[in-house]
């Protein structure tokens, strides 16, 4: 099952995902663009260095 929350920053997408995980789907994996960018920016790849600059 794939569930996608779409909306502007600060509208509660992460909050709603966490509520869903805590109440109904404990095995739900939450993936956010910001977590992916943060993880990638910490490595020394060309893309990681480019993300750090911006």
Query: What is the share of helical residues?
Result: 40-55%
State Rg: 14 Å
Q: How many beta strands in the DSSP annotation?
A: 0
Largest sheet: none
Approximate strand percentage? under 5%
Helix-and-strand structural type: mainly alpha
Question: How many structural units, i.e. domains?
Answer: 1
Overall outline: elongated
Are there runs of 5+ residues with pLDDT below 50, and where? none
| Mean pLDDT across residues | 91
Distance between the termini: 34 Å
**What series of H and E elements makes up the topology?**
HHH
The DSSP helix count reads 3
Question: What report would you give on this structure?
Answer:
The model has no long low-confidence stretch (mean pLDDT 91). By secondary structure, the chain is mainly α. The protein has one domain (13-53). The protein starts with 12 loop residues before the first helix and ends with a helix. The longest helix is centred in the middle third of the chain and has 11 residues, at 13-23. 52% of the residues lie in helices and 0% in strands.
Summed up:
This protein has 54 residues and is an all-alpha fold. The chain is built from three helices and no strands.
Short descriptors:
54 residues; mainly alpha; 3 helices
């Amino acid at each position: 099952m794939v569930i996608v929350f779409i909306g502007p920053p600060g509208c509660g997408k992460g909050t709603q995902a966490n509520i869903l995980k805590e109440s109904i789907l404990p095995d739900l994996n939450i993936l956010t663009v910001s977590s992916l960018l943060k993880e990638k920016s910490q490595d020394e790849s060309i893309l990681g260095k480019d993300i750090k600059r911006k």
